[in-house]
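Q: Predict the assembly, please.
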Amino acid sequence: MKVGVLGIGITKFGEIWDKGLRELLLDAQLLALKDAKIEAKQIDALYTGNMCGDSLSGQLHVGAMAAENLNLDKASIRVEGACASGSLALREGVLAIESGQADIVMVNGVEKMTDVSTEQVTTALMGAGDEELEGFNGLTFPGLYALLAKAYMTKYSKLTRDLLAEVSVKNHFHGARNSYAQFKSEITIDTVKNATMVADPLTLFDCSPITDGAASIILASEKTAKAMKSQVYITGSGLANDSLSLARRSSLTSIPAGAVAAQRAYSQAKIKVDDINFAEVHDCFSIAEILAVEALGLAKPGEAYKLYENKDTYFDGAHPVNTSGGLKACGHPIGATGVKQAIEAVEQLRGHAKNRQVKDAKIGVTHNVGGSGATVCVHVFKGE
Amino acid sequence: MFRESSIIRWRNYNDRYKLIGYKCDQCGKTYFEKKGLCTCGSLTFDEIEFSGKGKIVTYTKVHSGAEAFQEQAPFCVAIIDLDEGARITAQLTDCDYEDLKIGMEVEAVLRKFYKSGEKGVIHYGTKFTPKF
Amino acid sequence: MAGIIGWGAYIPKYRITAETIAKVNNDSAPAIKSGLGLTEKSVPGKDEDTVTISTNAARNALLRADINRKEIGAVYIGSESHPYAVKPSSSIVAEALDIGNQYMAVDTEFACKAGSATIQINAGLVDSKMINYGLSIGSDTSQAEPGNALEYSAAAGGAAFIIGKNEEAIATLDYTCSFTSDTPDFWRRAMQPYPSHAGRFTGEPAYMKHVIGATELILEKSKMKISDFKYVVFHMPNGKFPLIVAKKFGVTNEQIEPGLIVKKIGNTYSGSSLLGLSCVLDIAKPGDKILMTSYGSGSGSDSFIFTCTKKIADAQKKARTTDDYVNRKKYLEYPEYAKHMATIH
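A: Predicted assembly structure:
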């Protein structure tokens, strides 16, 4: 499988008070068109990842909005898979091209989250868990990941509180080197440890923020992409699902669907873990990055702590992870996150990542999680 | 919106209030709450009565809750293995977080979960307390 | 007549001492303690109310009663703190107990005797053969206005009793009667959060007159003497009133003390005399006779005479005792207490 990337566009991530859902989406769409050097009418289909348009903005039907923004009457669909909405939209775009139904596809991700209170956002996001089995018990997303953190750190005590904090410290370091990141300040282990407790052991600095933002990427068939001298291709797409609720999973110290999705993507791309030069993973909480690098095979179960002990996950380390700043520092506009991860992969493979550029980057993977691991979508990107 | 509904929870009173669960008549796996298909593929279950006793598998203390739960925060939540085999998610109540441990024995009690605002219904369900 | 088939108590874990409240109210703690005859009271958890207390007490009663719970034909809960003004506590509790749908149910209110009255109702239904078993519960998360004298005593807890045929009883109900009049000593108007009372008028013409009235009546009807009873329980608005009545009847310390739970947990309103009864059932021996007189403001008293049967010894071991709950406690400071009582959020 080989699908080319023609262009990318992304808005600033953060509290974008003067822009709504539609304006954020349009900004990213126009930037992507400009980068791809194509006209809107060349697009055959659009897929837009969005989770909370209805619950936070009263706006559903974001698929139609994406087409309308560009005066198009082409097939346009909203894709929802909780926090994995963006990568699911990307996968739909890839499938549309692979099936021959479309030659050029625009994939968007957008979320507008700051118009309502934190409690309302917390309630809306809990829709990604199991409302009857988890939400009804008062669980929140930080709570769900805290349950995983407690189970993991009890079984694997070498992941200390300090090493867990290293995840956020490193992601802020990268965020400080990314122009569209929400947080551009470096932090220390003490910043994380001394922050307000959200769900023990996770503090505010173990948690990704509430973010507005949008991202767009334009894909094309291998033939068209080659003709337009595209430098980056998607060569693998793996998707796996599991139970909505944690209690019905086979493991509480890993995200089983993550490993399955990764294997599916790697096998399609015909790569091995050792071929991977960098990864953009779903660090909605610090513990989630630990679980992600193990799911991707970058570390054995229980041994992710070593990567953080050795500072391997920095952009110039042996296993760069989240050079964008990740969800923690770059921000986490839910539906946009999966597309943003793809954009960071493209920037790295194009060699455009400036002061966070991974040296000799040839193969990168993106890893996007919906809920507490009910959906995991992994993509493999190759630079040529 | 849905948390203001009196109906959405009523449908599941069996799973909320009672210590009655479901046991797969093929493989014997037990569930506290209703499940469509058992992991073995079977669709038929026998009713079983739980003792309400179990052990903590993992737990946390939620400091900032969703809207409906904010007035109770902070509160403890756990995943619990019931003695009869089912694994469930539930709040822990009447406990000090510092005293909790993985493997600790707990038992079921009926408690208030949340109110649908000042005028709405009160939602009840099963929580767990450390065995005393 | 009917009898008690199973009993169960439930008392929340939290306590506040008279000292802690006195400090906030600028009262003298020693004066309060000697005046009211109590040192601390139980406080509900933030997630507890009459429904949850009733359910947990009733589950203990079911553990003691060797019956098919689907045969319970009536559920009555007496309380001054039903969580709803309209929508029964009794149907929620019955659902949680999984007793099916073929039962009569209603919530009752008669100040602190709303629970004991349901024992009379269920006994009548059993005796008339309308039901096989009835569940009677008295339970409260008692209200008291912060700063008012009631704040020292208004407590949370409840007790549940399964009433059934005499032959199956752990304690037979031998006699019951009531003494009632219109007496405005204590009340709570609709939509008001806290009750009001008429101060010292709650004593002589209210509590004393009715408790003594009902007790004299039942002694007369049963032709029994106080000395015939192993245990005597009078409603306990505080630690003083029941002792005044006890003295008048010549009740000994040995007879009254075991049921005097008010000293340890305060006044649980509709749960008060019933928790006293639960205390003595926990320790009674076959053949022991128990006299209980409740009191509800407004005003009335229900008097009961029970005789324990052989079955009681076995039943005592099947569930937690009232004392198990009395001894499980965590003390609160006043700000935490205010949160539990939802006076602050």
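The mean pLDDT of chain B is 93. The domain at 2-130 of chain B is CATH 2.40.50.840 (OB fold (Dihydrolipoamide Acetyltransferase, E2P)).
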